[in-house]
Amino acid sequence: MKTVIAFSGGKDSTLAIYKIQQHPDCEIDSLLVTLTEGFDRVSIHGVRYELLKRQSEALGIPLREVWIPQECPNEVYQERIERAVSDMLEDGVTHMVYGDIHLQDVREYREKMLSGTGIIPVFPLWGRPVGELGREFIELGFQTVLTCVDMDQLDRSFAGRVYDEAFIRDYPEETHDICGENGEFHSFVFDGPNFGFAIGYELGEERITRDMGSGRDRFLYRDLVPK
C-alpha cells in the first residue's frame, strides 16, 4: 500500500497519519498539501510554509505540494489536484488517506475525485465519535494550537489556544463539534508520538480576519512565528 496522506497540518490529518502508521503493509510516500501562492501559507489553515516544512521533517515524510492562486476558482483547483493525482499514479501510489470523520458530502467528493484513477481512498477516522477522537488525540500525546476560528461559531479567544484538557472543558461541546469538523476551527500540530522533535513556535502579534467567501470578516487567523 503505497500511500499519500491528504495533509493540512491540523489535528485530524495528523491523527490519520498515526493510525495508518500502525498498519505494517502501508508505506507512506508523502504528504499532499495545498498552499496559497503569494501568501506562502497552507490554504485555509493559514500556517506559514516554514512551519509546514518543519512538520514534514519532524514526521520524516516528504511534502507533495500543490500551489493554488489566491481567490482560486474551483476549475483551477480541480486542474491542479488532478495534475497531482496524475503525478502520484506515475510514482506508483495506490492509496490516499483522509482525516475526515463524518461529513458525508466531503467524503463523496473525495471518492468522486479519485474514481477511475485506481487510487483507493481511505478514511481511518470515519464514523468515530468526535468526543472520543478529541480525547484520544490528547491522551496519545499530540499537541496542537488553533490557528483559525470561525467567529460565527466560536469566541475569538479560542484562536491561539492549545488543544488540551482545559480547552475541552471550555469548549461548547454540547452544540459544537469538538474536532472542528464543521469548520469551527483549524489547527497546527507541533508535537506528537510520531514526531521526531517538537516544533518551536510563538504566537505572533498579527491577527487577521478574512471573509473566505462569506461576504464579511468571519474567520480570525492567529499567526504562528517559527522559533
From TrEMBL:
<feature type="domain" description="Diphthamide synthase">
    <location>
        <begin position="1"/>
        <end position="200"/>
    </location>
</feature>
<protein>
    <submittedName>
        <fullName>Uncharacterized protein (TIGR00290 family)</fullName>
    </submittedName>
</protein>
<dbReference type="InterPro" id="IPR014729">
    <property type="entry name" value="Rossmann-like_a/b/a_fold"/>
</dbReference>
<dbReference type="InterPro" id="IPR002761">
    <property type="entry name" value="Diphthami_syn_dom"/>
</dbReference>
<dbReference type="Pfam" id="PF01902">
    <property type="entry name" value="Diphthami_syn_2"/>
</dbReference>
